[in-house]
Amino acid sequence: MAQKCVHKGCGKDFSDLEEDCIYHPGPPIFHEGQKGWKCCKPRVLTFDEFLSIPPCTTGKHSTIDDTPAPEPPKADSDATPAPAPRAVAATESNSISAPSARLLQRAQPPPPTTPSPAPPESDSDDPSLPIPPNTTCRRRGCNHSSPANPPSSRDDEECVYHPGQPLFHEGSKGWTCCKRRVLEFDEFMRIEGCKKKERHLFIGSKGNEQDGSKEEEVGEVRQDFYQTGTSVIASLYLKKIDKERATVKFIEPATVELDLPTADRKRYATAMPLYGLIDASKSKFKIMGTKLELTLAKADGSSWPVLRSDERRTGEIIQVGKAGRA
Fold first, then answer.
1. For 20-51, b where at least 16 C-beta lie within 10 A, e where not — what string?
2. Cβ(225)–Cβ(316) under 8 Å?
3. Dihedral sign, CA of 250, 251, 252, 254?
4. Which of 167, 236, 242, 263 has a CA that sits 20 to 30 A from residue 287's CA?
5. Which residues of the chain have pLDDT under 50?
6. What are residue 14's DSSP bridge partners?
7. In Å, what is the CA distance from 318 to each residue of 189, 230, 307, 323?
8. Which helix (H) or strand (E) is 168 found in, with range?
9. pLDDT at residue 85, rounded to an integer
10. Is the pTM here over 0.85, yes or no?
11. How far apart are CA 237 and CA 225, in angstroms?
């Protein structure tokens, strides 16, 4: 009799106990908008991408869930309790200069960004396309697999799914389309769908897949920067940049060429004219989940009132470090 494997990332029906199982041995991790598994490195922003992370371990199927529970934060018994906050007099707070206050506000990290909703699925399967066996329904919360021998008619199919988005907030987990909330990830995956539809969605339509191959050109992205005496650190906010295809070129005297395709079929390409001169050999970049960070090495050590030469000057200079004496 066939049994269902309970390993994370597998979930297949099996009858051979020696059959290989490819799964995630670690628990899921959700932190500051990013999602992944403790057992491997990929981190993504959307829940659909999280479910598509390929399993990282090969073992044997099991009907017993042996996934370790997430470790609770360890309390440091030797830690000295933090002193109570001291009331600050009005004269003391007023002594902070306006530029320093702006610097402190700028130094605070930005709040975690909410991942944008995944693009809508096509409404039904293209009848001219064959459905491979054991294909999982694309609708969230359904998890029904196509049979090995497809029936002559699919009129009896009923898909029970979640039309909304996953919702994770302060430890509770649920869906935006219904009210139930749970604490454990396994319980969340078992929340029954709240909407019914005739027929499952296994492959979608050919037309929608072709349209989805076109990239959307992004005209502008949000950016900010701060500087030290030797470098300018700039952030360009663009989610899901494809690290394998992205290109960043530092060109002297004062240009950065960017070509940034993303995993959700967008592209930001520009030649950024910089305010000051840079040393291309010492400049570098880092691609993160929600942004591109540029570290621009100054060629002459001068202060930059703006990042780009085509920007209007504001009169403010954000700088980290000790200023020289007059």
1. ebebbbbbbeeeebbbbbebbeebbbbbbbbe
2. no
3. negative
4. 167
5. 79, 87-121, 207-212, 322-326
6. 3
7. 47, 13, 11, 12
8. strand 166-169
9. 52
10. no
11. 11
